[in-house]
Protein 1
Amino acid sequence: MKKQIIIGLSLLTSIFMQAQEAGHYLHFNVGGGVHDFSYKLQNGTKQNNPVGYTFNAAYSYFFSPYIGLQTGIGAQYFNQLSTLNYLSTTATTDELGRAYDFRANYKNWEENQQAIFLDIPLVLQFRHKLGENLGIIASAGGKVSLPVYSKFKTTGNGEIVTTGYYSQWNTELSDLPQYGFSTNKNTYEGNLALKTGYAAIADLGFLFKLSEKTDFYIGGYFNYGLNNILTPGTKEIYQRDGIYNGILASSQVKNVTPVSFGVKVGLYLQMGKKDADKDGVSDKKDKCPNTPVAAFGLIDINGCPLDTDGDGIPDYLDKCSTTPKEAVGKVDSLGCPLDADKDGVFDYLDKCPSTPKEAIGYVDQDGCPLDADKDGVFDYLDKCPNTPAEAKGTIDTNGCPIDSDKDGVADSDKDGVSD
């Protein structure tokens, strides 16, 4: 275990020494919540929602304004209380070789288990600015937990009543302390046999800007154990010879997989260069040093506002964020395609860009005036919209068939002479 600790500390120290550029942060936090060993007693109960604590120091490096990695070192404290109410029986023999059952009756017997784990995490982080002085940050990954302190201690509450039952005479001996049969209210303590643990971890919290390089953090944490950290035992909790082994050393508990969740607070300290416009990109790398607040969260790795559809209007101003490439150069200040002649067909599609206002409502999908009866006169000018095909070529400027002699019968031979 010492070797693992040394390796972890060496790695952390090496990373901290490199934290001299923008995008590097130190993070310190403390917290508390429910820290549960998450084991099940065969005969008894354990405390629900036991309170524990966490202390952490970490280093973060953000590759972009949004994504980064974090590692560090921390500690978690667990404090679990168990209560036993059951009768155990162990077959044995007395000094004269006579067989009997050694009975230990646990009556509200309480034992407390405590442990401190040294944590080495590695998580992927995501952050997003919600405003000039407020951001959200989330982390997910895993950690290694090394038990550096693990002990049990009885509380002095409850009792163990030991007796000897001789089945051959149907006799139970009690209150004979010289033979190990007595009422025991003593306190005991000892070490727990815990192994290195591995856990999935996740955090979610908020960053409140205190100064140019300092943020206050508050958020929640959740750690879920992935392996059994207990070395299972088969000993009796309390032996005939008076030795107390503890609950976790007995067959009463098979698995211990710690789970913890709660709230923590702390500080994020930015290292390296300044970020004058507060967009999350250091001034050294920022090619757009005056990013407006409205663009926070919508910038690229160079600190410039994103323009996803490439229409020349940054996303934070763009009301038409999926402008097709054919419309590039033909959009308004809000990033929406122009329609200069107001005919309902965007300019990048309009093959008749100067449609007169009288034709609005009478254009096709290309933005050109319609001529439904194909007489050569646009519908918006056509006073005879249903000119028959036979009359084509003998119509006037209003789209109506010509009647040279005004007799009410249209010319038919197209010679301009009345029939």
Protein 2
Amino acid sequence: MYRIFLFLITITISYSQTYIGGDIYEDTTLTSSGNPYYLNDDLYIGSDVTLTIDQGVEIYILGNNLITVEGNLMINGAEESQILFEPISGPSVSYWHGIEMLSGSVVSMNYVSLNSAQHIIYTQINDINLQINNSNLSSSNYLMLGEGSNHYFNIEIYNSLIDVNYGIHVDSQYGGCSFIIENNDIYTSRYFMELDHAAASNTFEITNNYFEYENEGGHSHIKIWDNCNGPWYDVSLNISYNLFNFAFSEAETDPRIIDLRTCSYENENSYDYYIHNNTFIGNSDYMAIAMHERDYPEIFIDNINNNFIYNNIFTGFQTAIYSPNLDDLAYHIMYNNFFNNSSNISGAIQDQGQFGEEFGDMFVNLNGYPSDANMNIYSDPIFDGDSYHLSSESPCIDAGYPGIETDLDGTINDIGYA
């Protein structure tokens, strides 16, 4: 056995085993030639330093260790040669701490299999950049936990499988942040996104994902609440082309799939909000969308885009859309399909204009199907099997809002996610 000291990182090699831990103060690369690696101590990556982990590296965690990043952590796997992070006791026995990101840090994961972390990402500092691509993140407690004062961070997750108890939770005031969640399969037993204290200038892009609750369910799945301690403005929200499949979830008290709360202030408002082309599959315990404006509902309504909620399918819910005080929100709910819900709309948006199922056969939409004044339809969407794609007989085909891009075949946009 012999021991190599690389700056302040300690690497011990014995019988083709490499033990890692300690502090890194100079650029370092781990390659598969050192497999298997054993993390037997906390690991710290210094400021302006990059630790690169090459494809095919296998890292086994001995104990409840933590990787702290103040510089850059680049985990560069490949489709046929992924990078593994796993506790030595097995993926279902105990959690390890995960990765902590400090101010100015960058973490990039590509083709990574990481499991059994208490927090895959933890931070309580400003100015971080996280990008996850083509990865399998499973059997962990949190995908990301942000505490303290968090501002100006960028979170991007693409083409990954996420199977965790809790998704992204930021329990502090935050502003100037970007969340891009695209083309993922996401399974959680509690919620995917819980952001309690939003401030100004945040961007949310949640597109082309599959969401499913497992086990308990209960909390709002995507919860974005203003902190109400300052203006909520310059907010961009796009939730589109997702399938939310909660048909078999066990619900707790008053669960919602999308739960939005704002606190508007005069002359400081810009809301670029879109919830469109999603398919919401629920059960009799669930509410699909809840929307609440605490202080100035008329200001919020005056500043959102004209077509806020459109081209969605809502089926199987206790309540599809609820708002306690945004009565004029009804005029921004257009070209949707409501079917087999105990209540399609509830709260202040009821009884607004010729909107709702009682008016569902008084008008005709663009494909000639009976609708209300807002071009919403109230018939079986007729899915083609369990994929929730539309069958050729579906009334949702060519029934969407004509003001957006056409389908690939050049026809009017369909209602639903696919």
Protein 3
Amino acid sequence: MCPSDRYSDDEPPKHVGPPSGQAAPSGLAGFAVPSDRVLMDGSYRWVMQRCAVGLAVLDMGGEFLEANPAFCDLTGYSHDALSVPGFMFEKMLLTDEIASYRKHLVALSNGEEESYHQPQRIVRQDGAVLWVELTINLMRKAAGVPHGLVVTAVDITELRRTEGAFRDLSFRDSLTKLPNRRLLRDRLKGAVARARREERKVAVIFIDLDGFKAINDTQGHETGDWLLKAVAQRLSECLREYDTAARLGGDEFVVLLPDLPHSEDAAQVAERIRTALASPFVTDDKGRLEISASIGVSLFPDHAESARDLLQASDEAMYLAKKSEGNRVTYSRRLSTPTPTPVAVDEHIGAGEPELGREGSSPKAKSRTYMADPSPLQRTHRSLLAAHRHLDFSRLPGQGRERSGPCQSPRQRRLGQ
């Protein structure tokens, strides 16, 4: 039982204020702060006893000095348990959150922070984990010296559950609970950005189920839904912990493989998925459902440079597998075209052709920025066009005169025939 329960008077005790003519020292609601244990008598205890919000007072080291009935009900700890010397507030925190709490506690103790406020998980005495809106405020003595900490805790567990449910509706497929298209798109963009920085590969595996429509039409949507959930489970079992299996809708699924060191890794995963989905699915009533999968694979940066193009490339590859009677893995036939990068070149005034900037170039040269084409074929084509201007075609056989005979072949011209 919390100590405040021993004070059942309906009338509040007389106000404990400063001597006449003196300003009230800082503390709780302008009340004088006792020099030893705080909130023990008078108006302090009356306020705490009747407050519907969990309130507790800690010393500067985080040890409990006082707690109201609402705090005891919230945490499941009796006042006697909280009054044990050395009982620290951090005992109610999860292990991986204690370090962050201690960091703020030091900042409060040093006067660097006046308050600490955030949603926090706490562990009740019975082991249940609650979400609370936690606020810790610093109390100071008249001279401004930090004196204690006031903790308020409001149960927001149901609110967090509701938020989680809405979040799942926004980012999860309602049937399979896999990420939906929206969440897949976000993760794919992040994976491509990381792979570009770290020069690694990303694979997208597009999966369309062969034979699903016939099962869904003949055996009913309930069986079809069961099969989709079973497919989702098998996909998850084929992946690493940080890979993503998503459902786009209908019988289409997409697997995202980030941080691949080698292209061959994607092929192994795709084949593992194909084999897993080709195995019969046994229903609860011992029925057997047999399907297969048409699978398309695309790689960053081999087949596409953006998340959108990467997904589209794997979709196109999947349709190629579908046209080949399914139950196979097909790679994208796209070739990635990197974004052109600006390169400075020197154009010699009056020379007629731009030259790549180099040491010792003409002092008359002025800098111009061109978009350098990364394609070797197009670079060769550009060089040929530049060389074309310097060729004298009048010297070639058959140029500059009427031809009376039949057209000569290249071989005949080379031989002078």
